[in-house]
């Protein structure tokens, strides 16, 4: 297993833990629907990162595109969830259009994963 895969697994674990924390916070907080959305994005995409790493390691998808997709999931889900969480607790955004930017990057990362599956396999 290469270093990038290990880093992605660690990041996915952190995303998963943060997703559970935000789910708990949303369950116990008043008007915390933003936290529920942030939690879902982190939990879903932590699993997607692990899946992409597994596909890369098995040689099923194009490795570089798969890594691009997996890192995209990490960055984009963190951006999306971070923006919603900051809005919930601080009352302001990371920057204008931060959550939509994260969402758009998530869509792009999913499309790159599809391309990685269609592209010829190589290391």
Summarize the structure in words.
The structure is a single chain. The protein is mainly α and 123 residues long. The chain has a single domain (3-118), classed as Four Helix Bundle (Hemerythrin (Met), subunit A) (Up-down Bundle), CATH 1.20.120. 81% of the residues lie in helices and 0% in strands. It has helices at residues 3-28, 33-57, 63-90, 98-118. Helix 1 (3-28) runs antiparallel to helix 2 (33-57), helix 2 runs antiparallel to helix 3 (63-90) and helix 3 (63-90) packs antiparallel against helix 4. The longest helix has 28 residues, at 63-90. The radius of gyration is 15 Å and the shape is elongated. The model has no long low-confidence stretch (mean pLDDT 95).
CA radius of gyration is 15 Å
Average pLDDT rating: 95
Number of domains: 1
CATH topology: Four Helix Bundle (Hemerythrin (Met), subunit A)
The CA-CA distance between the termini, in Å, is 12 Å
Stretches with pLDDT under 50, minimum 5 residues: none
Provide the CATH top-level class: Mainly Alpha
Task: List SSEs in N-to-C order.
Answer: HHHH
Percentage of residues assigned to helices: over 70%
Shape: elongated
Provide the β-strand percentage band: under 5%
Number of strands: 0
Short description:
The protein is mostly helical and 123 residues long. The chain has four helices and no strands.
Features:
single chain; 123 residues; mainly alpha; Four Helix Bundle (Hemerythrin (Met), subunit A); 81% helix
How do the helices and strands line up, and which of them pair or pack?
Blueprint: H1 3-28, H2 33-57, H3 63-90, H4 98-118
Helix pairs in contact: 1-2, 1-3, 2-3, 3-4
């Amino acid at each position: 297993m290469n270093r990038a895969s290990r880093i992605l697994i660690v990041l996915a674990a952190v995303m998963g833990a943060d997703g559970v924390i935000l789910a708990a916070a949303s369950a116990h907080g008043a008007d915390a629907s933003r936290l529920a959305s942030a939690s879902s994005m982190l939990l879903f995409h932590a699993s997607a990162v692990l899946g992409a790493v597994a596909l890369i390691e098995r040689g099923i998808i194009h490795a570089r595109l798969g890594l691009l997709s997996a890192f995209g999931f990490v960055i984009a889900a963190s951006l999306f969830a971070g923006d919603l969480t900051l809005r919930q607790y601080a009352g302001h955004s990371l920057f204008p259009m931060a959550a939509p930017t994260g969402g758009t990057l998530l869509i792009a990362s999913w499309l790159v994963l599809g391309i990685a599956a269609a592209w010829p396999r190589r290391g």
